[in-house]
Structures are given as structure tokens and as C-alpha cells.
Amino acid sequence: MGRITQYYHATSLEDAFAKAKQLGPVAAYVGGGVELVLRRNPEITTLIDLSHCGLDYIAASREGIEIGSQTTLTTISRSADIRQYAGGSLAWWAGHIAHNNLRDMITVGGVIGRNQPWNDVVPHLVALGAQVRLFDGTERITPLSDYIEAKQPGAIIKGVLLSAGNAGSRGFLWRFTRTQQDISTLHFSALVNCDGKVMTAANLVFAGRPGHAALYPRLSEELVGKSLSHETFARLAEMAPDLVEVGTDLRATGEFRRELVRAAIVNLDEHMTGVAQ
Ligand SMILES: Cc1cc2nc3c(=O)[nH]c(=O)nc-3n(C[C@H](O)[C@H](O)[C@H](O)COP(=O)(O)OP(=O)(O)OC[C@H]3O[C@@H](n4cnc5c(N)ncnc54)[C@H](O)[C@@H]3O)c2cc1C
């Protein structure tokens, strides 16, 4: 790993972006620093600290909730607004993954900035339909699912937006692991909205396949407009293993992952149809 020769305390977003633009690929923004301390691109020599740029906030409005990129997992887990959003799934997971000391440091900006394929938070944010507010001289908003497909080098993640339109839906995340502390062999996350007994919207996301988080609109189509019944989910569980691209790595074979895909849909079935308490 390369030596850090400068730790730059940016005083504003404009200041941070100007410094990053001036230095190019040898500079990196610091969230909680958890990833950057352990593993970083060897060419990085300057770290740009964002802690004085006003990015540590959770703001609720009529449009939804915006989480500033310097907000830690611990703060997210304790937010009353996020605890009420989509059944509280994001708050619950933000308070249970990793270790409590790490949750005090890991920021939502750092999680998205790194986005390991096995990351727990990103697939759930994608399922929740999150958008990111980026700053690269001007501000713009883009769906998180698009951002992770084509990151914008140099752009600062300013915040994550959760739309009020999804607040009443139900959010889920399952991480299949060999032990509680292990990196998962598969993630499945879902957001489902219902009108009575009919599903009106659904986002289904798989990650750690071992590829990174991806939405599966073809599977969502199978739920939208259908009744909340075991038969609906049984059809989905039959289709999903053929549609979700899985592979083999050190953690699991593709065959095992295909079986987990089916099990993931069974979990969703049991939670949506009331079998699971
Ligand atoms: C021991 C250990 C256990 C872990 N356990 C888990 C776990 O259980 N579940 C899980 O999901 N993850 C886990 N992680 C991974 C952790 O979520 C990631 O390492 C995450 O990237 C750390 O966030 P950070 O804020 O410290 O990021 P940093 O280390 O500060 O940054 C990570 C990357 O994001 C970039 N970045 C940071 N902020 C911004 C911004 N605002 N705009 C643009 N780019 C930015 C940085 O330049 C860097 O490239 C674990 C990590 C460790 C070391």
C-alpha cells in the first residue's frame, strides 16, 4: 500500500472537489476511513477529509429522507425517521451489521464509494429505490442503481435520498452467511408495496452472487398486480434461479447459490403471506 503524504481538511464541498480535481487519481475522499486504512489503491498519496463539509445530517421532508454521506451506520440505526421508513429495515440492518465500533465509523458515503459485491447496505438501498445526490462543481441526483454501474471519479457523494413514495412499503434484506460474522454468500433484498392483498410495486435485488448488487425487473414484473398468495411466490421461486446470474468463488459454488436464490424467494413468500412471524 502506498504512503499517505498529505491529509487535507476540506472546509467545503467546493474546496474538497477542487483539491480532488487538482490531484486526480492520487487523491481519495475520506468517509469513516475504515476501508482506506486497510486497503486502498496503492497510488493514493492524499486523503481529503470531508468531516467539515456539513455532510453529517438526516433531514426528513415531505419528499422523503435525505441522509448526508458522512452519516454513520450507528446514527442511521438510531434515527426515528429511518426506523419508520419501509418497516424500519434500513435502520435495523444499520444497527446489526459489522461490529458496534465499526458502525460508529462506517459512513453511508464510504459504503457506496467502495461498494464491495458482498456489502450489506448497498443492495438494500438499491431495493429501497435510493438516489444519490452528487457534487462535481454542480449538484445532480441519480438513481443509486445507475451510480454503482458507472461511478463518477472525483464526484463527491453528498447524500442519499429515500423517496416518501416508498415509506409505506415493506423493506427486507437477507444475508446468507456460513457464520454470523462471515461475508455473505448471497444477499437478497426486496421492497414490496401492497394495496390490500394485491402487490402494486416491487424491487428485487440480489448481490454477492458473487457479482455486485443488481435489480431484477423481470422478477418484479412477476409480482406486480398479483395477489399476495403462496402460489404467486411459488412461481417466482421456480423462475428466479434461472434468471439471477450466479457464479462460483471461494465461498460457494454457483449451484449452491442457485439454491439460495430459491430459498431467498421462499423467505419473502413467508414474510409477505404471513407464515413467518
Ligand atoms: C473489519 C471490517 C468489517 C466489516 N464488516 C462489514 C459488514 O459486516 N457489512 C458491511 O456491509 N460492510 C462491512 N465492512 C465494510 C465497510 O462497510 C466498508 O469498508 C466501507 O467502505 C467503510 O466505510 P467508510 O466510511 O469507512 O469508507 P472509507 O474507507 O472512508 O471510504 C471507502 C471508499 O469510499 C470513498 N468515499 C468515501 N466517502 C465518499 C464520498 N462522500 N464521496 C465519494 N467517495 C467517497 C473513499 O474515497 C474510498 O474509496 C467491514 C469492514 C471492515 C474493515
UniProtKB/TrEMBL annotation:
Superkingdom in the source lineage: Bacteria
Residue ranges annotated for the FAD-binding PCMH-type domain, each copy included: 1-167
Listed InterPro entries: CO_DH_flav_C (IPR005107), CO_DH_flav_C_dom_sf (IPR036683), Diverse_Substr_Oxidored (IPR051312), FAD-bd_PCMH (IPR016166), FAD-bd_PCMH-like_sf (IPR036318), FAD-bd_PCMH_sub2 (IPR016169), Mopterin_DH_FAD-bd (IPR002346)
SUPFAM superfamilies reported for this sequence: CO dehydrogenase flavoprotein C-terminal domain-like, FAD-binding/transporter-associated domain-like
MF terms (GO), sorted A to Z: FAD binding; oxidoreductase activity
PANTHER family membership: XANTHINE DEHYDROGENASE FAD-BINDING SUBUNIT XDHB-RELATED, XANTHINE DEHYDROGENASE SUBUNIT C-RELATED
The name this protein goes by in its record: FAD-binding PCMH-type domain-containing protein
Organism: Candidatus Cryosericum terrychapinii
Source organism phylogeny: Bacteria, Pseudomonadati, Caldisericota/Cryosericota group, Candidatus Cryosericota, Candidatus Cryosericia
